[in-house]
Design a protein that fits this description.
The chain is an alpha+beta fold. 20% of the residues lie in helices and 23% in strands. It contains 19 helices and 45 strands. The strands form 12 sheets. The chain has an 8-stranded mixed sheet with strand order 22-23-24-25-29-28-27-26. Strands 38-39-40-7-43 form a 5-stranded mixed sheet, with no helix packed on it. A 4-stranded antiparallel sheet has the order 8-9-10-11, with no helix packed on it. Helix 1 packs across helix 4, helix 2 packs across helix 4 and helix 8 crosses helix 9. The relative contact order is 0.06.
């Protein structure tokens, strides 16, 4: 009977029971209770005494509850222990003691990975972590089973266990790991990442009959090595390494001269996924010191199946690293001849086929251990094959004995198997490239239903879609956008619009730059910036941006964040909105996305956070701004003058009291948090809006505590303005809403509501369906409630899987995506986890991290995409409960902030928090060719580097003519002021250039007239007498003061002679006496009335 552990129903402590040892109990974190029966006896122990009532079990951590802890142990931990123990030989090892030891090792450290995952999942272990935990348990059980203290005394003749003398790799049947085995007593556990390199797999050796448990040579690390890249990075901060891929090639004979090379032939079964098709040429320098290793066929099969993980190669790693070379015909001939000539062996009947004859001899040798040892010893002395070791020969004979190699099935071109570094992901590319051929072959031999030879139902249509969708790869990457990519909207299958956040606060305006709105073209490979979302830079009174130098060095324009966008395909109009308090309406000039122009704009009284277009034939557009009342508008497009389109405003009922007065405070108010139009034909005219409380000062402490989980869910008819009734959760804080794609129902993520809410549930998702036929009124009522443990929900998806049921997913701030199947209850069927944020966090993750910001379905129910703050975009198969992760599609250097598929699902645009835009496509023709430039190095040489694609910025804008308040601006320099006067008609140029500029027809607007000089201070009245006299005097003075032109100097020879004489005189004051100077008159007596102090 296999050993099975079960959890007791005790609310305070969890026990593990083994029915094989009746009554024997095991606790996780404390000693077993004193009520166990004998392991092999039938006497029953006395009944246990009643438990004393305690406040809390000390074995349960303080940050969890006993119920949550027991549920995790019973539903997740204990079944994994059972699976690990089922793999052990029950009659030879003490499985109960091994299970107890495994539990103690995994749970005793409160800082272990188990408790970290337990805390992160709030009592629920993720599926990926469960797989890692299962591999750990299997690895521990294998190691402990070899220890003497866990082995049972033999009850029958023991089976001889072969001894191996070289290292190898073995993949256990249930978990996916690589486990080196040793004959020594190993340590219980070693961290999976260490400084010692993992040995390249070599040939296992054994002294007697076959065994599936190879051992390592002395001195080799013996602990299980679990292939788990993500956890190793989190624990040891190890750089990611590319996976090692297997390659196979032809081997040349070691004895005969080299034959002519032929193109490699496929060696794999076309029915199997072709994972090892990369072919390399095997040369003598690729082997280990000229050694040609040979691995047992069963071990090669395990290696060829793949470890499904990342293997850390030894450093330095020489790629490819050969680990198996088949025996050539020449080697078979030499080995057959050497064994036939050995003395002391029976005279076996020879056969015509040397390989078959060698197999018969191997069969006899393995039946007599003494003869095998004698043959191997003699061959070791003679060394008939210098490049083969004794273990290689023994492995080859073992395969011949088991009819693995026969002359009739021998390959004429022996195969070389090797590991190689897969730096470009060629391994996965080849698998995806060969899938179509495999599917076609399977359909040909099995029919469209996929039965018979395949023994399973295969949806070939889905398989072909997967093959097409798995060709998604990075084709272009643009950098240097203004900020985080906040919104993406496709205008065609080749063009898209992106909006970004901006630095616009008073303390970081110096980082504001263009590139907040860009138009991307996949076919042209361009990303162009448009400057329309901007305002005049306000004058800052405090901080570093308030200085004159900063104001003069910065642009007079301040680009605003563009946070929402949408596209109306029926009317070919795109919409963008942002913090400039406007909504811009655009038309893209072509499907290629070469350019676009603005059709109009709608001004609002607050930041416009949402704009969405209805699929209704009327073309209604809804907007939502950060204002307390009339925040929602529904526009009806005026095609003649789009900027003057009429609109109707809406407010939630919480903004006014019973008398109609505003109730919002100065510090906080209810603002729209999400908004969606109906998708089904019957509800396309309905607008669903969710409200949440928000601080007006940016400090959430301004919101009263009793209002934090409050809000409102509103539903309006956009055609009539009528509000429809929602029968539940209308006063809860709303995070996100989404309509069903084809039915009259929607989902809303809100704060929890009700008296029976579980203690760990912090958000809920309700499914609402139309009940107007049942109740006789226009309303929606909840039909199902899904509980979620995350504090906030970013993204919702709604995917039908049948006529009545659907998948619901929620991407949350805790880095997880929760998946529900409405046909299977209100608990998540999967929790798709991402790693830690690439940006450092100083506090709680859910309060600081953005978490999952991108969720989308592919073309089938088997492809689901998520992107999170760990910078990864992952592909999932939610129908695979054991291994939902398909692959990692993209690794970005910053958190993923936005993403969207093209309408035909052939392209995917991803934006991150560093201003990068990634374009992925299934078509290689969409790849943007790289641009290279020469860089001069300090030593004088040049180096060619790849230049990243950047946003093509717009031309410099002219300075504004008004300030942030709308007041006309006066130019700061005389030239600019003069140009402004001429431009406005306040001054004009006289036709006579001698006169120049005179007063213009609008000179009065300058305000330069002296009103006090006119009668009654009216500039249209005549001048006062005193001012008229001053004016006349000024004219007379200006006439007399006109400077006359200087006459040219006439040539005078006398003056020139005097000048030359003076130059010849030596001017020395010391030669003149005082009397002479006084007589000449240059000395004057001056008294400055200085007062001098005595010395």
């Amino acid at each position: 009977m296999s050993s099975t552990f079960v959890a007791s129903s005790s609310p305070s402590q969890t026990y593990l029971r083994s029915p094989r040892f009746s009554g024997t109990t095991l606790t996780y974190l404390s000693s077993p209770p004193a009520r166990a029966r004998a392991a092999n006896g039938g006497d029953t122990a006395p009944p246990p005494p009643k438990r004393q009532k305690v406040d809390r079990d000390p074995s349960v951590p303080s940050w969890t509850t006993p119920e949550e802890y027991d549920r995790c142990m019973k539903d997740q931990f204990v079944p994994l222990v059972n699976k690990a123990l089922d793999l052990l030989p029950q009659d030879r090892v003490d499985t109960l003691s091994i299970g107890r030891k495994i539990t103690e090792v995994l749970l005793k450290d409160p800082n272990s990975h188990f408790w970290a995952e337990y805390r992160r999942g709030r009592g629920v272990l993720g599926h990926e972590f469960e797989q890692r935990l299962a591999r750990q348990m299997v690895a521990h059980s294998e190691v402990l089973a070899r220890r003497p203290e866990y082995q049972r005394p033999p009850t029958e003749t023991p089976v001889p266990i072969p001894q191996f003398h070289a290292s190898t790799l073995q993949r256990l049947p249930a978990p996916r790991l690589i486990t080196p085995q040793v004959s020594q007593s190993p340590r219980l556990y070693t961290p999976r990442v260490s400084t010692t390199p993992i040995p390249i797999p070599c040939v296992p050796t054994r002294a007697v009959g076959p065994s599936s448990t190879p051992t390592l040579a002395a001195g080799v690390a013996s602990d299980p090595i679990v292939i788990d890249d993500e956890e190793d990075q989190a624990a040891a901060h190890v750089q990611r390494v590319r996976p090692l891929r297997l390659a196979q090639s032809k081997a040349t004979s070691s004895a005969a001269p080299a034959r002519k090379e032929h193109p490699p032939k496929p060696l794999l079964d076309p029915l199997l996924p072709q994972r090892h098709q990369a072919v390399v040429s095997a040369t003598q320098s690729q082997y280990f010191d000229g050694h040609l290793p040979y691995v047992l066929n069963k071990h090669r099969s395990l290696i060829l199946k793949g470890n499904h993980g990342v293997l850390q190669p030894p450093l330095p790693f020489q790629s490819p690293a050969v680990f198996h070379v088949d025996f050539t015909d020449d080697e078979v001939r030499l080995l057959h001849q050497a064994i036939r000539q050995l003395p002391g062996l029976p005279s076996w009947r020879p056969k015509d086929d040397q390989r078959r004859d060698l197999g018969s001899m191997a069969h006899q040798l393995f039946r007599h251990d003494g003869q095998l040892k004698h043959v191997l010893a003699q061959l070791g002395q003679q060394n008939p094959l210098p490049k083969r070791r004794i273990e290689d020969i023994r492995n080859f004979l073992y395969d011949l004995d088991h009819k693995r190699k026969r002359m009739s099935t021998a390959q004429k071109e022996p195969v070389v198997l090797s590991f190689s570094q897969d730096n470009n992901g060629d391994h996965g590319k080849f698998i995806r490239a060969s899938r179509v051929e495999s599917l076609l072959f399977r359909r040909e031999i099995s029919g469209p239903g996929g039965l018979r030879a395949m023994r399973q139902l295969v949806n070939f249509k889905t398989g072909f879609k997967h093959s097409r969708e798995d060709e998604l790869a990075l084709r272009a990457e643009w950098t240097d956008c203004a900020g985080d990519i906040a919104t993406i909207a496709w205008t065609s299958n080749n063009a898209f619009i992106c909006g970004t956040t901006e630095h616009s606060d008073a303390h970081n305006q110096q980082y504001n730059k263009p590139g907040n709105l860009v138009l991307g073209s996949c076919s042209l490979g361009t990303l162009r910036a448009y400057p329309e979302h901007r305002i005049v830079r306000p004058i800052v009174s405090k901080g570093e941006n308030s200085t004159y130098a900063m104001q003069q060095s910065q642009s007079p324009w301040l680009y605003s964040s563009v946070v929402a966008s949408d596209y109306d395909a029926a009317h070919d109009r795109a919409f963008t909105s942002g913090f400039d308090r406007t909504v811009k309406i655009w038309r893209v000039d072509s499907e290629s996305g070469s350019s676009m122009h603005m059709l109009g704009e709608w001004k609002h009284s607050g930041n416009v956070n949402f704009v969405t277009a209805s699929n209704h034939a009327s073309g209604m557009i809804a907007t939502a701004a950060d204002v307390a009342t009339d925040a929602v508008r529904i526009y009806g497009i005026n095609n003649e003058n789009i900027s003057a389109s009429p609109f109707r405003s809406y407010s939630c009922s919480r903004v006014t009291d019973a008398e109609g007065n505003a109730v919002s405070t100065e510090k906080w108010a209810y603002f729209p948090a999400t908004m969606q139009w109906g998708l089904a034909q019957e509800v396309r005219h309905l607008l669903l809006v969710g409200y949440s409380p928000r601080s007006r000062t940016g400090d959430d402490n301004d919101i009263p505590v009793e209002r934090l989980n409050s809000g409102e869910l509103c539903l309006w008819n956009g055609l009539t303005g009528e509000r429809w009734k929602i029968n539940a959760a209308t006063t809860q804080n709303v995070f996100e809403v989404l309509w069903h794609p084809s039915q009259r129902c929607f989902i809303a993520a809100t704060s929890p509501q009700g008296l029976d809410v579980p203690p760990l549930v912090r958000t809920q998702i309700r499914i609402f369906c139309s009940t107007d036929e049942e109740l006789g009124e226009k309303s929606f009522s909840p039909v199902k409630v899904l509980d979620c443990r995350a504090a906030d929900i970013n993204e919702l998806t709604f995917m039908p899987n049948s006529a009545k049921f659907c998948y619901v997913t929620a991407g949350c701030t805790d880095g997880n995506t929760y998946v529900w199947d409405t046909a299977r209850g209100d608990r998540p069927i999967l929790v798709l986890r991402h790693g830690e944020s690439v940006e450092p966090l100083s506090g709680d993750r859910e309060s600081e991290d953005v978490g999952v910001k991108f969720t989308a379905w592919g073309t089938t129910l088997d492809r689901f995409y998520t992107g999170s703050s760990d910078g990864l975009v992952k592909v999932w198969n939610i129908r695979s409960v054991d291994k939902p992760l398909v692959r990692t599609l993209l690794e970005a250097p910053a958190p993923i902030s936005c993403g969207m598929f093209s309408p035909d699902k052939t392209k995917l645009v991803i934006g991150d928090a560093s201003g990068r835009v990634f374009m992925l496509s299934i078509d290689e023709e969409d790849t943007v060719p790289p641009v290279y430039r020469a860089v001069k190095l300090p030593n004088g040489t040049t180096r060619t580097v790849r230049e990243p694609l950047s946003v093509k910025l717009h031309d410099d804008l002219p300075p504004p003519s008004y300030d942030a308040e709308g007041t006309p601006l006066e130019p700061t320099t005389g030239v600019l002021r003069g140009q402004a006067y001429l431009q406005n008609g306040q001054l004009q140029r006289h036709p006579n250039p001698t006169i120049g500029v005179v007063q213009g027809p609008r000179y009065v607007e300058t305000g330069l007239f002296r009103a006090e000089a006119h009668f009654e201070n009216d500039i249209t009245q005549p001048l006062l007498a005193e001012w008229e006299v001053k004016q006349k005097d000024a004219r007379a003075f200006s006439g007399r003061a006109q400077a006359k032109g200087l006459r040219p100097v006439r040539d005078n020879g006398f003056l020139a002679a005097v000048h030359n004489e003076n130059r010849a005189v030596d001017f020395n004051l010391d030669q003149l006496d005082w009397e002479t100077l006084q007589a000449e008159g240059p000395i004057m007596e001056l008294d400055y009335d200085f007062s001098y102090e005595d010395d």
